[in-house]
UniProtKB/TrEMBL annotation:
Annotated catalysed reactions: (2R,3S)-3-isopropylmalate + NAD(+) = 4-methyl-2-oxopentanoate + CO2 + NADH
Domain Isopropylmalate dehydrogenase-like: 2-343
Stored InterPro entries: IsoCit/isopropylmalate_DH_CS, IsoPropMal-DH-like_dom, Isopropylmalate_DH
Binding positions (NAD(+)): G276, S277, A278, P279, D280, I281, A282, G283, Q284, G285, I286, A287, N288
Subunit annotation: Homodimer.
Similarity comment: family membership: Belongs to the isocitrate and isopropylmalate dehydrogenases family. LeuB type 1 subfamily.
Binding sites annotated in the UniProt record for substrate: R91, R101, R129, D218
Pfam families xrefs: Iso_dh
Biological or metabolic pathway of the protein: Amino-acid biosynthesis; L-leucine biosynthesis; L-leucine from 3-methyl-2-oxobutanoate: step 3/4
Organism from which the protein derives: Parasphingorhabdus flavimaris
Name listed for the protein in its UniProt record: 3-isopropylmalate dehydrogenase
Location of this chain's protein in the cell: Cytoplasm
Record-annotated site: Important for catalysis: Y136, K186
GO molecular function per UniProt: 3-isopropylmalate dehydrogenase activity
Protein backbone atom coordinates (compact mmCIF):
# COMPACT_ATOMS: atom_id res chain seq x y z
CA UNK A 1 0.00 0.00 0.00
CA UNK A 2 2.06 2.85 -1.34
CA UNK A 3 0.34 6.10 -0.42
CA UNK A 4 1.26 9.58 -1.61
CA UNK A 5 0.58 11.96 1.28
CA UNK A 6 -0.10 15.53 0.14
CA UNK A 7 -1.07 17.60 3.18
CA UNK A 8 -1.06 20.98 1.41
CA UNK A 9 -1.91 24.30 3.03
CA UNK A 10 -3.46 25.70 6.20
CA UNK A 11 -5.39 23.13 8.20
CA UNK A 12 -4.44 20.51 5.60
CA UNK A 13 -1.19 20.05 7.52
CA UNK A 14 -2.93 19.78 10.90
CA UNK A 15 -5.64 17.32 9.92
CA UNK A 16 -3.24 15.10 7.95
CA UNK A 17 -1.20 14.49 11.12
CA UNK A 18 -4.28 13.01 12.78
CA UNK A 19 -5.28 10.90 9.75
CA UNK A 20 -1.80 9.36 9.67
CA UNK A 21 -1.96 8.64 13.41
CA UNK A 22 -5.25 6.84 12.84
CA UNK A 23 -3.79 4.78 9.97
CA UNK A 24 -0.81 4.03 12.23
CA UNK A 25 -3.15 2.77 14.95
CA UNK A 26 -4.72 0.31 12.50
CA UNK A 27 -1.59 -1.88 12.25
CA UNK A 28 -1.92 -2.15 8.49
CA UNK A 29 0.54 -4.46 6.82
CA UNK A 30 2.76 -3.00 4.09
CA UNK A 31 1.73 0.59 4.67
CA UNK A 32 4.24 2.87 2.96
CA UNK A 33 3.78 6.63 3.18
CA UNK A 34 5.62 9.14 1.00
CA UNK A 35 5.11 12.86 1.50
CA UNK A 36 5.25 15.62 -1.13
CA UNK A 37 4.46 19.32 -1.35
CA UNK A 38 1.32 20.63 -2.98
CA UNK A 39 -0.56 23.93 -3.17
CA UNK A 40 0.72 27.23 -1.81
CA UNK A 41 3.44 25.43 0.18
CA UNK A 42 4.75 23.94 -3.07
CA UNK A 43 4.50 27.25 -4.90
CA UNK A 44 6.57 29.00 -2.23
CA UNK A 45 9.18 26.20 -2.17
CA UNK A 46 9.34 25.09 -5.78
CA UNK A 47 7.64 27.87 -7.78
CA UNK A 48 4.69 25.67 -8.79
CA UNK A 49 1.60 24.40 -6.87
CA UNK A 50 1.94 20.93 -8.43
CA UNK A 51 5.67 20.36 -8.97
CA UNK A 52 6.99 17.52 -11.14
CA UNK A 53 8.34 15.63 -8.07
CA UNK A 54 4.83 15.57 -6.60
CA UNK A 55 3.31 14.34 -9.85
CA UNK A 56 5.94 11.61 -10.11
CA UNK A 57 5.15 10.41 -6.61
CA UNK A 58 1.43 10.43 -7.39
CA UNK A 59 2.03 8.42 -10.55
CA UNK A 60 3.93 5.71 -8.70
CA UNK A 61 1.57 5.52 -5.70
CA UNK A 62 -1.42 3.20 -5.24
CA UNK A 63 -3.54 5.98 -3.71
CA UNK A 64 -3.30 9.65 -2.79
CA UNK A 65 -4.29 11.17 0.54
CA UNK A 66 -4.90 14.88 0.04
CA UNK A 67 -5.39 17.49 2.78
CA UNK A 68 -6.38 20.87 1.36
CA UNK A 69 -4.90 23.69 -0.69
CA UNK A 70 -5.48 27.42 -0.66
CA UNK A 71 -3.35 30.29 0.53
CA UNK A 72 -4.61 33.88 0.60
CA UNK A 73 -1.10 35.12 -0.23
CA UNK A 74 -1.45 33.36 -3.60
CA UNK A 75 -4.88 34.73 -4.53
CA UNK A 76 -3.48 37.31 -6.93
CA UNK A 77 -1.04 35.04 -8.75
CA UNK A 78 -1.68 34.14 -12.36
CA UNK A 79 -4.35 31.47 -12.26
CA UNK A 80 -2.12 28.57 -13.35
CA UNK A 81 0.14 29.20 -10.33
CA UNK A 82 -2.61 29.34 -7.71
CA UNK A 83 -2.83 26.53 -5.12
CA UNK A 84 -6.30 25.46 -6.27
CA UNK A 85 -4.83 24.50 -9.65
CA UNK A 86 -2.98 21.70 -7.88
CA UNK A 87 -6.11 19.85 -6.86
CA UNK A 88 -7.73 20.47 -10.24
CA UNK A 89 -4.55 19.31 -11.97
CA UNK A 90 -4.33 16.17 -9.85
CA UNK A 91 -7.96 15.24 -10.50
CA UNK A 92 -7.42 15.70 -14.23
CA UNK A 93 -4.01 13.93 -14.35
CA UNK A 94 -5.32 10.97 -12.38
CA UNK A 95 -8.55 10.96 -14.43
CA UNK A 96 -10.53 10.68 -11.24
CA UNK A 97 -13.81 11.75 -12.83
CA UNK A 98 -16.13 10.48 -10.09
CA UNK A 99 -16.18 12.23 -6.73
CA UNK A 100 -18.24 10.43 -4.07
CA UNK A 101 -19.30 12.74 -1.26
CA UNK A 102 -21.37 10.89 1.34
CA UNK A 103 -23.38 12.95 3.82
CA UNK A 104 -24.97 10.98 6.64
CA UNK A 105 -26.21 11.99 10.06
CA UNK A 106 -24.10 10.67 12.93
CA UNK A 107 -26.32 9.30 15.71
CA UNK A 108 -26.75 11.83 18.48
CA UNK A 109 -25.52 14.75 16.36
CA UNK A 110 -28.94 15.96 15.20
CA UNK A 111 -28.69 19.12 17.31
CA UNK A 112 -25.47 20.16 15.55
CA UNK A 113 -27.25 20.31 12.21
CA UNK A 114 -28.51 23.58 10.84
CA UNK A 115 -31.84 21.79 10.37
CA UNK A 116 -34.52 20.80 12.87
CA UNK A 117 -33.37 17.52 14.50
CA UNK A 118 -36.26 15.46 13.13
CA UNK A 119 -35.41 16.61 9.59
CA UNK A 120 -31.66 16.33 10.06
CA UNK A 121 -32.00 12.74 11.28
CA UNK A 122 -33.10 11.59 7.83
CA UNK A 123 -30.06 12.65 5.83
CA UNK A 124 -28.17 9.77 4.23
CA UNK A 125 -27.14 10.72 0.73
CA UNK A 126 -24.18 10.11 -1.55
CA UNK A 127 -23.52 12.99 -3.91
CA UNK A 128 -21.79 11.68 -7.03
CA UNK A 129 -20.08 14.73 -8.43
CA UNK A 130 -18.50 14.74 -11.90
CA UNK A 131 -14.95 15.97 -11.42
CA UNK A 132 -13.10 16.25 -14.73
CA UNK A 133 -15.33 18.49 -16.83
CA UNK A 134 -17.99 21.21 -16.79
CA UNK A 135 -17.33 24.93 -16.54
CA UNK A 136 -14.22 24.14 -14.45
CA UNK A 137 -12.26 22.87 -17.43
CA UNK A 138 -13.77 24.75 -20.39
CA UNK A 139 -12.06 27.56 -22.19
CA UNK A 140 -11.79 30.59 -19.93
CA UNK A 141 -10.32 34.02 -20.11
CA UNK A 142 -10.65 37.76 -19.86
CA UNK A 143 -11.24 39.91 -22.91
CA UNK A 144 -12.59 43.27 -23.95
CA UNK A 145 -16.04 43.67 -25.44
CA UNK A 146 -16.56 45.78 -28.56
CA UNK A 147 -17.44 48.63 -26.17
CA UNK A 148 -14.10 48.25 -24.40
CA UNK A 149 -15.60 46.68 -21.29
CA UNK A 150 -13.72 43.91 -19.47
CA UNK A 151 -15.42 40.54 -19.88
CA UNK A 152 -14.65 37.25 -18.13
CA UNK A 153 -15.81 33.98 -19.63
CA UNK A 154 -15.77 30.28 -18.73
CA UNK A 155 -17.24 27.78 -21.15
CA UNK A 156 -19.49 25.07 -19.72
CA UNK A 157 -19.68 21.82 -21.65
CA UNK A 158 -19.96 18.04 -21.33
CA UNK A 159 -19.74 15.52 -24.10
CA UNK A 160 -21.91 12.43 -23.92
CA UNK A 161 -19.07 10.06 -23.00
CA UNK A 162 -18.28 12.17 -19.94
CA UNK A 163 -21.91 12.10 -18.84
CA UNK A 164 -22.22 8.39 -19.54
CA UNK A 165 -19.24 7.34 -17.42
CA UNK A 166 -20.32 9.37 -14.37
CA UNK A 167 -23.91 8.17 -14.80
CA UNK A 168 -22.69 4.54 -14.73
CA UNK A 169 -20.91 5.23 -11.44
CA UNK A 170 -24.05 6.83 -10.04
CA UNK A 171 -26.38 4.01 -11.11
CA UNK A 172 -23.96 1.43 -9.66
CA UNK A 173 -23.72 3.41 -6.42
CA UNK A 174 -27.51 3.45 -6.26
CA UNK A 175 -27.62 -0.32 -6.89
CA UNK A 176 -25.50 -0.79 -3.77
CA UNK A 177 -27.86 1.38 -1.70
CA UNK A 178 -31.59 2.14 -1.78
CA UNK A 179 -31.75 2.10 -5.62
CA UNK A 180 -32.98 5.69 -5.94
CA UNK A 181 -31.04 8.09 -8.15
CA UNK A 182 -31.79 11.78 -8.53
CA UNK A 183 -29.99 13.52 -11.37
CA UNK A 184 -29.58 17.24 -10.72
CA UNK A 185 -29.19 19.71 -13.57
CA UNK A 186 -30.44 23.00 -15.01
CA UNK A 187 -31.96 21.58 -18.20
CA UNK A 188 -34.60 24.32 -18.28
CA UNK A 189 -31.84 26.79 -19.19
CA UNK A 190 -28.58 25.04 -20.13
CA UNK A 191 -27.85 22.91 -23.21
CA UNK A 192 -25.10 21.18 -21.23
CA UNK A 193 -27.79 20.08 -18.79
CA UNK A 194 -30.21 19.00 -21.55
CA UNK A 195 -27.54 16.63 -22.88
CA UNK A 196 -26.83 15.48 -19.31
CA UNK A 197 -30.51 14.69 -18.74
CA UNK A 198 -30.89 12.92 -22.11
CA UNK A 199 -27.85 10.71 -21.56
CA UNK A 200 -28.73 9.81 -17.96
CA UNK A 201 -32.26 8.92 -19.11
CA UNK A 202 -30.94 6.77 -21.99
CA UNK A 203 -28.70 4.86 -19.60
CA UNK A 204 -31.48 4.16 -17.12
CA UNK A 205 -32.73 1.23 -19.26
CA UNK A 206 -29.52 -0.61 -18.29
CA UNK A 207 -30.46 -0.24 -14.61
CA UNK A 208 -34.18 -1.13 -14.51
CA UNK A 209 -34.11 -1.62 -10.73
CA UNK A 210 -33.01 1.95 -10.09
CA UNK A 211 -35.75 4.54 -9.76
CA UNK A 212 -34.46 7.58 -11.64
CA UNK A 213 -35.71 11.12 -11.09
CA UNK A 214 -34.53 14.49 -12.34
CA UNK A 215 -34.48 17.76 -10.46
CA UNK A 216 -33.39 21.29 -11.27
CA UNK A 217 -30.48 22.41 -9.16
CA UNK A 218 -32.28 25.35 -7.57
CA UNK A 219 -35.06 23.06 -6.38
CA UNK A 220 -32.46 20.50 -5.23
CA UNK A 221 -30.81 23.13 -3.05
CA UNK A 222 -34.18 23.85 -1.47
CA UNK A 223 -35.19 20.19 -1.12
CA UNK A 224 -31.88 19.36 0.53
CA UNK A 225 -32.78 21.52 3.51
CA UNK A 226 -36.55 20.93 3.37
CA UNK A 227 -36.39 17.14 3.32
CA UNK A 228 -32.91 15.66 2.79
CA UNK A 229 -34.22 12.16 3.54
CA UNK A 230 -35.84 12.03 0.08
CA UNK A 231 -32.38 11.61 -1.51
CA UNK A 232 -30.46 8.35 -1.77
CA UNK A 233 -27.90 9.02 -4.52
CA UNK A 234 -27.59 12.36 -6.30
CA UNK A 235 -25.60 12.65 -9.52
CA UNK A 236 -24.63 16.04 -10.82
CA UNK A 237 -22.00 18.08 -12.63
CA UNK A 238 -18.81 19.51 -11.25
CA UNK A 239 -20.06 22.96 -10.23
CA UNK A 240 -23.48 21.98 -8.89
CA UNK A 241 -21.89 19.09 -6.97
CA UNK A 242 -19.35 21.40 -5.39
CA UNK A 243 -22.04 23.72 -4.08
CA UNK A 244 -24.62 21.10 -3.05
CA UNK A 245 -22.04 19.10 -1.09
CA UNK A 246 -21.01 22.08 1.05
CA UNK A 247 -24.70 22.63 1.70
CA UNK A 248 -25.21 18.96 2.59
CA UNK A 249 -22.38 19.25 5.10
CA UNK A 250 -24.35 21.71 7.21
CA UNK A 251 -27.35 19.39 7.13
CA UNK A 252 -25.04 16.88 8.85
CA UNK A 253 -23.59 19.49 11.20
CA UNK A 254 -20.20 20.60 9.93
CA UNK A 255 -18.07 20.70 6.83
CA UNK A 256 -15.39 19.17 9.07
CA UNK A 257 -17.29 15.86 8.88
CA UNK A 258 -17.54 15.33 5.12
CA UNK A 259 -15.04 13.08 3.37
CA UNK A 260 -14.70 12.25 -0.29
CA UNK A 261 -13.25 9.72 -2.70
CA UNK A 262 -12.27 10.75 -6.21
CA UNK A 263 -12.20 7.69 -8.43
CA UNK A 264 -11.44 6.82 -12.03
CA UNK A 265 -11.56 3.56 -13.91
CA UNK A 266 -9.07 1.64 -11.76
CA UNK A 267 -8.61 1.31 -8.02
CA UNK A 268 -6.25 4.24 -7.69
CA UNK A 269 -8.02 7.13 -6.02
CA UNK A 270 -7.57 10.58 -4.54
CA UNK A 271 -9.03 10.95 -1.07
CA UNK A 272 -9.79 14.39 0.29
CA UNK A 273 -12.10 16.14 2.72
CA UNK A 274 -14.63 18.35 0.93
CA UNK A 275 -13.49 21.44 2.83
CA UNK A 276 -10.58 23.73 2.09
CA UNK A 277 -7.53 25.05 3.89
CA UNK A 278 -9.61 27.22 6.25
CA UNK A 279 -7.14 30.12 6.55
CA UNK A 280 -9.39 31.71 9.20
CA UNK A 281 -8.56 28.96 11.72
CA UNK A 282 -5.25 27.59 10.39
CA UNK A 283 -2.45 27.30 12.93
CA UNK A 284 -4.78 27.34 15.91
CA UNK A 285 -5.07 23.58 16.35
CA UNK A 286 -8.86 23.70 16.31
CA UNK A 287 -9.70 22.20 12.91
CA UNK A 288 -11.88 19.10 12.94
CA UNK A 289 -9.77 16.24 11.50
CA UNK A 290 -12.78 13.91 11.08
CA UNK A 291 -13.32 14.61 7.37
CA UNK A 292 -9.66 13.80 6.70
CA UNK A 293 -9.79 10.66 8.84
CA UNK A 294 -13.00 9.52 7.12
CA UNK A 295 -11.30 10.16 3.76
CA UNK A 296 -8.52 7.79 4.82
CA UNK A 297 -11.23 5.22 5.63
CA UNK A 298 -12.68 5.71 2.14
CA UNK A 299 -9.18 5.07 0.77
CA UNK A 300 -8.97 1.72 2.57
CA UNK A 301 -12.40 0.80 1.24
CA UNK A 302 -12.12 1.91 -2.39
CA UNK A 303 -8.44 1.49 -3.23
CA UNK A 304 -7.52 -1.50 -1.06
CA UNK A 305 -10.80 -3.37 -0.60
CA UNK A 306 -10.37 -3.16 3.19
CA UNK A 307 -14.04 -2.77 4.09
CA UNK A 308 -13.71 -4.08 7.64
CA UNK A 309 -10.90 -1.63 8.44
CA UNK A 310 -12.84 1.25 6.87
CA UNK A 311 -15.90 0.28 8.91
CA UNK A 312 -13.78 0.30 12.09
CA UNK A 313 -12.51 3.82 11.47
CA UNK A 314 -15.99 5.11 10.62
CA UNK A 315 -17.39 3.50 13.76
CA UNK A 316 -14.61 5.05 15.86
CA UNK A 317 -15.37 8.54 14.50
CA UNK A 318 -19.07 8.03 15.20
CA UNK A 319 -18.37 6.75 18.72
CA UNK A 320 -16.17 9.73 19.57
CA UNK A 321 -18.87 12.12 18.36
CA UNK A 322 -21.45 10.23 20.42
CA UNK A 323 -19.17 10.58 23.48
CA UNK A 324 -19.42 14.35 23.02
CA UNK A 325 -15.81 14.92 22.00
CA UNK A 326 -16.68 17.85 19.74
CA UNK A 327 -14.53 20.39 17.95
CA UNK A 328 -15.21 24.10 17.76
CA UNK A 329 -17.11 23.64 14.51
CA UNK A 330 -19.66 21.53 16.41
CA UNK A 331 -19.93 23.83 19.43
CA UNK A 332 -17.39 21.93 21.55
CA UNK A 333 -13.90 22.69 22.81
CA UNK A 334 -11.88 19.66 21.67
CA UNK A 335 -8.72 20.51 19.74
CA UNK A 336 -7.59 18.82 16.53
CA UNK A 337 -5.20 16.54 18.41
CA UNK A 338 -7.72 15.78 21.17
CA UNK A 339 -10.18 14.56 18.54
CA UNK A 340 -7.37 12.49 16.98
CA UNK A 341 -6.44 11.13 20.44
CA UNK A 342 -10.02 10.09 21.13
CA UNK A 343 -10.37 8.31 17.77
CA UNK A 344 -7.05 6.50 18.22
CA UNK A 345 -8.05 5.49 21.76
CA UNK A 346 -11.35 4.18 20.45
CA UNK A 347 -9.52 2.08 17.85
CA UNK A 348 -6.89 0.69 20.18
CA UNK A 349 -9.16 0.21 23.19
CA UNK A 350 -6.96 2.67 25.08
P1 LIG B 1 -13.04 26.29 3.62
O1 LIG B 1 -13.72 24.99 3.43
O2 LIG B 1 -11.56 26.27 3.71
O3 LIG B 1 -13.61 26.99 4.93
C1 LIG B 1 -14.97 27.41 5.03
C2 LIG B 1 -15.32 27.60 6.52
O4 LIG B 1 -15.41 26.30 7.14
C3 LIG B 1 -14.28 28.38 7.31
O5 LIG B 1 -14.91 29.18 8.26
C4 LIG B 1 -13.46 27.28 7.98
O6 LIG B 1 -12.86 27.67 9.19
C5 LIG B 1 -14.50 26.19 8.20
N1 LIG B 1 -13.89 24.85 8.13
C6 LIG B 1 -13.47 24.21 7.02
N2 LIG B 1 -12.93 23.02 7.35
C7 LIG B 1 -13.02 22.90 8.68
C8 LIG B 1 -12.63 21.88 9.61
N3 LIG B 1 -12.05 20.73 9.22
N4 LIG B 1 -12.85 22.10 10.92
C9 LIG B 1 -13.45 23.24 11.32
N5 LIG B 1 -13.84 24.23 10.51
C10 LIG B 1 -13.63 24.07 9.19
O7 LIG B 1 -13.53 27.22 2.41
P2 LIG B 1 -13.07 28.73 2.02
O8 LIG B 1 -12.85 29.53 3.24
O9 LIG B 1 -14.06 29.17 1.02
O10 LIG B 1 -11.70 28.51 1.26
C11 LIG B 1 -10.41 28.64 1.87
C12 LIG B 1 -9.36 28.21 0.88
O11 LIG B 1 -9.45 26.79 0.65
C13 LIG B 1 -9.51 28.84 -0.49
O12 LIG B 1 -8.22 29.11 -0.98
C14 LIG B 1 -10.19 27.80 -1.32
O13 LIG B 1 -9.93 27.92 -2.70
C15 LIG B 1 -9.58 26.54 -0.75
N6 LIG B 1 -10.37 25.31 -0.91
C16 LIG B 1 -9.65 24.17 -1.17
C17 LIG B 1 -10.29 22.96 -1.22
C18 LIG B 1 -9.46 21.73 -1.47
O14 LIG B 1 -8.27 21.75 -1.29
N7 LIG B 1 -10.04 20.61 -1.88
C19 LIG B 1 -11.66 22.88 -0.98
C20 LIG B 1 -12.36 24.06 -0.71
C21 LIG B 1 -11.71 25.27 -0.66
C1 LIG C 1 -13.58 21.32 -3.49
C2 LIG C 1 -13.02 22.71 -3.74
C3 LIG C 1 -12.35 22.78 -5.09
C4 LIG C 1 -13.44 22.57 -6.13
C5 LIG C 1 -11.57 24.05 -5.40
C6 LIG C 1 -10.56 24.36 -4.34
C7 LIG C 1 -10.88 23.98 -6.72
O1 LIG C 1 -14.00 23.68 -3.57
O2 LIG C 1 -12.81 20.35 -3.52
O3 LIG C 1 -14.77 21.20 -3.21
O4 LIG C 1 -14.16 23.52 -6.49
O5 LIG C 1 -13.57 21.45 -6.61
MN1 LIG D 1 -15.83 22.89 -2.70
Amino acid sequence: MHIAVLAGDGIGQEIMVEALRVLGAMDLPNLCLDHADVGGVAYHKHGHPLPPETLELVQSADAVLFGAVGDPSCDNLERHLRPEQAVLGLRKQMQTFANLRPAKMFPGMEDASGLKPEIARSIDVVIVRELNGDVYFGEKGMRKTADGLREGYDVMSYDESEVRRIAHVAFKTAMGRDKRLCSVDKANVLETSQLWRDVVTELSSEYPEVELSHMYVDNAAMQLVRNPGQFDVVVTGNLFGDILSDQASMCVGSIGLLASASLGDGTKGLYEPIHGSAPDIAGQGIANPSAMILSAAMMLRHSFGMDAEADRIEAAVAAVLAQGVLGHDLGGTASTSEIGDAIVAQLTGG
